[in-house]
């Protein structure tokens, strides 16, 4: 249980990357008042957490319907997470396409897009929650721990967004990149483990 909790927490923490979100949040809310920033941060985090939890609850039946095995999901999720980890290590992680960024700059409300999706709840977060739901294997206590870690990570993300200006002043762009690279290394190790576990299970079956 403890190992599962730590693994799920670290996975979501490095995927969401609250520190790396700070400069992005400041960029897309540059012309907003402090009150607007607080409202946007709160609503976006709540929405993203709800989306991830609902996806976690409904993802397994979808996989069963599509005939996708849990081991295949582990391998696919591991490959995707490794790609994200590689981008983080090189400090050029892309959370949105160029077209999405252009639309965000002119949007009246950035709460849902691009902040909640895909900056907070992106492909990596969706893959991660499905992988850990599979590892929970229907055990209610494990699922409760998983969703508690999701809530905790998004709470940390909310704090990072609320304190974004201070975080950037203290760490600077270099400090943010250093932390993102460290998170990337941790995520790469977790991704390799997922691929190895999935491949081993498929081989045994």
Low-confidence stretches: none
Note the gap between the termini.
25 Å
Query: Treating each run of at least 4 consecutive H or I residues as one helix, how many helices?
Result: 9
**Helix-strand pattern:** HHHHHHHHH
Largest sheet: none
Which key phrases capture this entry?
single chain, 205 residues, mainly alpha, globular
What is the structure about, briefly put?
By secondary structure, the chain is an all-alpha fold.
Q: What can you tell me about this protein's structure?
A:
This protein is an all-alpha fold and 205 residues long. Helix content is 86%, strand content 0%. The protein has nine helices and no strands. It has helices at 2-16, 18-28, 34-66, 70-89, 98-106, 111-120, 123-136, 140-162, 164-204. The two termini are 25 Å apart. The mean pLDDT is 83.
